[in-house]
Amino acid sequence: MYPPRNRLNQIILVVLILLSIVVITLHYKEGEEGFLHRTQGFATNLIFPLQSGVSRVVNSFRHGWGYIFELGRLREENQQLKGEVAELRGELISLREMERENRRLRKLVGFKEKLEYRTIPAHVIGKSPTEWQATIILDGGSADGIAKDMPVVIEEGLVGRVIEVASHAAQVQLVTDRKSGVAAQILRTGETGVIEGQIGGELGLQFISKDSSVRKGDIIITSGLGGVFPKGIPIGRVVEVKGRAHDLYKGIKVKSAVDFSKLEEVLIITDFPLTPPFASSEGR
Amino acid sequence: MRFPIFGFSILLISFILQTTLVPHLKIFGAQPDLILVVVAAYAFIHGSAGGSIGGFFGGLLQDMVLIRNMGFNALCKTIVGYLAGLVERTVFAESILLPVVAIFLASLLHEAIYLSFSVFLGEVVLLDLSLWRIVIPSAIYNAILTLLVYPLLCKINIYEERVPRFK
């Protein structure tokens, strides 16, 4: 009984491994317009309504659970008001959430007005399902005017760039992704380098000469040299500078100005002109 | 055919939670891989065929929203699902601790295969940083998540009288 079953399991395993290798190879070799890339766009569109719905529930719960505990204590003290409290609790959570969202959006609108570029706001509805890649999914796509390579920002600083676009959703490669590269500048000294994402969500500033006077606390901004991101967007602050005698460059760690774990709304810059061939030096 | 509907529904739910809820549950920067936990737990209950098929489609779902290396997760999870299925449910009937340890090991194996293929395709991988920042914390987190996921999957399967009840 067992040998035929085991044999079948092994055949299934081999077939699936071969299929996976075919997918890896095709995806690696085909262009942006290839079948698998288009399938990814289609799948993103398909799961977008589900992600969007769950994301709203998750965000409401995340913001409201503290209030639930607080009101839960009151409920114990005041049993006769249980019904009223439950009703008020719902309203309170909803109002606090609205107030919070209102504050966030007002901040975003203020920032949007300050920016010299035209922007589109979008909600974050999903995040990368694996830690090996740092991406987010937005609820806006090509139907809203979003296109590949557009820079994504918030008031605190640079978020990343649009890397895949479906009609109603877009995927953004965060600056913390380990394949991300952003042309950067040390604000105080004017020296330019490249900000690269690192494992664990940190940023590293590369190609800064060992003779540089860069120090902890220095502000890092986009240099605009890569052609993808406009000049002057804050990236973060230097938190560590290392330099050994035999190294050509300093080892510089930068802490992003953006808290990527709390991203909810972002702005996509839609009218910054990409300047090829430099564009290829930024991004993945 | 009950398997496809049951299995795919669970995988789809896991995938949606993985991209929406799970990123908010990070502890010290570590994020669990709910799909891997579900695939391994499913394999413990249903054996190697269910494990490898579940692993393939679960991984492929994950790959659908990744910007590079499409197929990596499908490949890793197919292999892990198959191997997890080899030990099957008879080993785990008595204690929840065994699947917890098994999923910890399955997570390490998954990341080892993932890293090996990344290196094979020419990616630069900082091994010590990857190990301490991602591989080990995630494996611990996955093991903890097993305490919730495995009994839940077993309970669903009790209806099918395929799994012995926990004491």
Plain-language structure description:
The complex is a heterodimer of chains A (284) and B (167). With 284 residues, chain A is an alpha+beta fold. Chain A has helices spanning 2-29, 35-77, 82-114, and strands at residues 119-127, 135-138, 151-154, 157-165, 170-174, 181-186, 192-197, 203-206, 219-222, 234-242, 251-256, 265-269. Helix content of chain A is 37%, strand content 25%. In chain A, a hairpin with an 8-residue loop joins β10 and β11. In chain A, α2 (35-77) crosses α3. Chain B has 167 residues and is mainly alpha-helical. Chain B has one domain: Arp2/3 complex 21 kDa subunit ARPC3 (Orthogonal Bundle), CATH 1.10.1760. Chain B has helices at residues 2-20, 34-64, 72-87, 97-120, 127-158. The longest helix of chain B is centred in the C-terminal third of the chain and has 32 residues, at 127-158. At the A-B interface, α1, α2 and β1 of A face α1, α2, α3, α4 and α5 of B.
Helix and strand succession of chain A?
A: HHHEEEEEEEEEEEE
Q: Give the fraction of residues assigned to helices of chain B.
A: over 70%
Biggest interface found: A-B, 51 and 53 residues
Uncertain stretches of chain A: 277-281
> Rg of chain A to the nearest angstrom?
23 Å
| Assigned CATH class of chain B | Mainly Alpha
Structural key phrases:
heterodimer; A: 284 residues; alpha+beta; 6-stranded antiparallel barrel; 3 helices; 37% helix; B: 167 residues; mainly alpha; Arp2/3 complex 21 kDa subunit ARPC3; globular
Describe, in short, the structure shown.
Chain A is of the alpha+beta class and 284 residues long.
What is the topological layout?
The complex is a heterodimer of chains A (284) and B (167).
Chain A: H1 2-29, H2 35-77, H3 82-114, E1 119-127, E2 135-138, E3 151-154, E4 157-165, E5 170-174, E6 181-186, E7 192-197, E8 203-206, E9 219-222, E10 234-242, E11 251-256, E12 265-269
Antiparallel strand pairs in A: 1-2, 1-12, 2-5, 3-4, 3-12, 4-5, 6-7, 6-9, 7-8, 8-11, 9-10, 10-11
Helix pairs in contact in A: 2-3
Chain B: H1 2-20, H2 34-64, H3 72-87, H4 97-120, H5 127-158
Helix pairs in contact in B: 1-2, 2-3, 2-4, 2-5, 3-4, 4-5
